[in-house]
Each structure stands twice: as structure tokens, then as C-alpha cells.
Design goal:
By secondary structure, this protein is α/β, with parallel strands linked by helices. The protein is 35% helix and 24% strand. Strand 2, helix 3 and strand 3 form a beta-alpha-beta unit.
Length: 142
């Protein structure tokens, strides 16, 4: 891998909002996740992602979600439970045409119901789309 490619990947993790020394909880990990994106996030935060069993407060959450993973609103509410005030959720869903694709309207509805606001979705690897979700209260306090 070239230095330019490595730099671009690091920029993606940083563009997604990750910062050094954050504690980031990962939910929904499975064989299909984008390992390069995970590694990029870990490089930026300087430590490994913590798993679903982490029982302390996290600065942010990476939520891998597929259509057949259950109710998205419930998953978002659960993700918020151990998140630091002002934290955000990086919701990763399969891209259009991939197994487990989630309709943007479902993401919008679930986000609103969970009390979150969504930023524009961006490509996060060859198979995944990322949506950064944050609490409106946290956004107003800044």
C-alpha cells in the first residue's frame, strides 16, 4: 500500500469524526464488516475498539447494521445508552444492492424516533455506507 493510500484511509476515519484517545464501542461486528475501516479507526483513536459487552461510557459508537439485524430504532436507542454526552454514532449499513441493504428512509425514521439527527451519508469502503448520527442537544451545546 502506498503512503498516499494510507493517508487517504486515515483521512476517512478522521472525516468520520474519530479523534485520538476516544473510547469507541463497536456493535454489530460480523464476518462481513470492513476490516480496513476498523483498522483505520483504531489507528486514529490509538487503541482497539471496545466490544458490545463494554460496560462503561464510550465517546462514540460504530454500529454495523443490516436489514435482518432487527429493529434499527431499538439498536440506536441501545447504542445511546452507554455513550458520553455529545458523542455520536457512526451507523454503517450495506450499500445499495448488497445483502442487508437498509433503505435511507428507514434510517431517517429510526434516527428521528431515537432522538438523533443524521448528517449526510458517505461511502465508507466498497460495501458500506456511513451515516453519522448525533443528539440534537449535543449539537446545540457546541
Amino acid at each position: 500500500m502506498s503512503a498516499t493510500a494510507d493517508h487517504a484511509e486515515t483521512n476517512l476515519a478522521a472525516r468520520l469524526g474519530f479523534q485520538p484517545e476516544q473510547v469507541v464501542q463497536e456493535i454489530g461486528y460480523d464476518d462481513d464488516v470492513d476490516q480496513e475501516l476498523r483498522e483505520d479507526i483504531e489507528k486514529v483513536i490509538g487503541t482497539e475498539l471496545v466490544d458490545e459487552d463494554y460496560d462503561d461510557v464510550a465517546d462514540g459508537v460504530v454500529l454495523w447494521f443490516r436489514e435482518d439485524d432487527g429493529d434499527l430504532t431499538d439498536a440506536l436507542v441501545d447504542a445511546i445508552a452507554y455513550m458520553e454526552e455529545g458523542g455520536s454514532i457512526l451507523l454503517l449499513t450495506p450499500k445499495t444492492g448488497r445483502d442487508g441493504y437498509v433503505e435511507p428512509s428507514e434510517i431517517g425514521e429510526a434516527s428521528t424516533t431515537a432522538g438523533l439527527s443524521a448528517a449526510k451519508s458517505i461511502s465508507a469502503g466498497k460495501d458500506w455506507t456511513a451515516s453519522r448520527l448525533s443528539t440534537p442537544k449535543a449539537a446545540k451545546k457546541r
